[in-house]
Design a protein that fits this description.
Elements (H helix, E strand, L loop, with lengths): L5 H21 L3 H10 L4 H25 L5 H22 L5 H19 L15 H18 L4 H13 L3 H25 L5 H25 L1 H28 L7 H27 L6 H8 L10
Helix pairs in contact: 1-2, 1-3, 1-9, 1-11, 2-3, 2-11, 3-8, 3-9, 4-6, 4-8, 5-10, 6-7, 7-8, 8-10, 10-11
Length: about 325
């Protein structure tokens, strides 16, 4: 167990707060917290377990807030949770016997396709769209498939859930984000239990970060509830882009990344700064737009093409 100075406590709490906020909006909190935990000196299995513990608590706060504000129906996703549990368990068992290196090389390119598809579909997820698959069939199928992937490998699962909910069920991005939190919570609970049984948790570090996660989860979900799908879209694009950068960095850094020497803490700092920049710019734009001010950014809106929110949820 690490000896924690006040400086480390502040860093851990702050990273939990930032990760919880952005994760409740668009996922991707682990991009900040996992490199940080490895960077402060935790062994990889303990870092993974501690990351799941603090993420579970932050996701619980966000999920409860979404549920309280009626963005989530547990009846709708019950079969998805059941099949997700079966998928996650199957994926975890298969991962112990099958080499995942090929999939790890392919996933960054799939994430890049998700990013480009969302970027060049300017109205995607801003309002509820066309339903392409019955809800129950969708949750049974994707509950198992994405649960399996989450147990087998994991990175990008939240983004895959969001884009699948938007494309197949026609959910707007705010609603899709809320439902994604349930499946993230399910995965985090299962993973935390396994890491707990393996004694691969640092409870002191985990609970310090979890305090920040609880506040961040409530804050991020409240921003989504208040501002709707048009608030989620730019943050989702930014987080997916950072996830793609992170994946390419880990898999291909010797070829295409010029700063391959970055250690865990340095890499966490780079990602955290990127997340802060995305949030700061976007929050500033939201505040300015509500006051009716005109800025050059309005010309950039044509690139994202986010129209005024006509209807937040339906």
């Amino acid at each position: 167990m690490l000896h924690l100075s006040w400086q480390y406590i502040i860093i851990l709490f702050s990273s939990g707060l930032l990760a919880g906020t952005v994760d409740a909006i668009a996922g991707g909190g682990g991009l900040i917290t996992l490199p940080l935990l490895i960077g402060v000196g935790l062994p990889a299995p303990v870092a993974l377990g501690t990351n799941k513990l603090q993420a579970m608590i932050g996701t619980s706060a966000a999920t409860f807030n979404y549920f309280k504000n009626r963005l989530i129906s547990l009846e709708v996703v019950l079969k998805g949770l059941l099949f997700g549990f079966l998928g996650a368990t199957s994926g975890s068992l298969v991962a112990q016997h099958v080499n995942s290196s090929f999939l790890e090389l392919v996933i960054p390119f799939i994430m890049l396709l998700v990013f480009l598809y969302t970027l060049y579909s300017p109205k995607l997820g801003l309002l509820d769209g066309r339903v392409r698959m019955p809800e129950q069939r969708f949750y049974m199928l994707f509950g198992f498939l994405l649960g399996f992937y989450d147990g087998f490998l994991g990175p990008g699962t939240g983004s895959f859930w969001v884009i699948a909910l938007v494309f197949f069920l026609g959910y707007n991005l705010a609603k899709a984000t809320a439902y994604t939190k349930i499946f993230n919570l399910k995965s985090n609970v299962i993973a935390t239990c396994w890491f707990m049984l393996g004694h691969n948790l640092d409870y002191k570090v985990g609970f310090i970060m979890a305090l920040g996660q609880m506040i961040g989860g409530k804050l991020g979900s409240q921003l989504v509830i208040k501002n709707g799908a048009q608030f989620v879209r730019p943050v989702f694009l930014g987080i997916v882009l950072l996830a793609i950068f992170s994946m390419f960095y880990r898999q291909y850094y010797e070829v295409i990344i010029p700063f391959a020497h970055l250690a865990g803490l340095q890499f966490a700092a780079v990602i955290a700064i990127g997340v802060l920049v995305i949030l700061a710019i976007h929050l500033a734009i939201v505040c300015i737009s509500t006051k009716g001010l005109s800025l050059p950014y309005q010309n950039m809106k044509s690139l994202i093409k986010t129209p005024p929110m006509l209807n937040r949820w339906h």
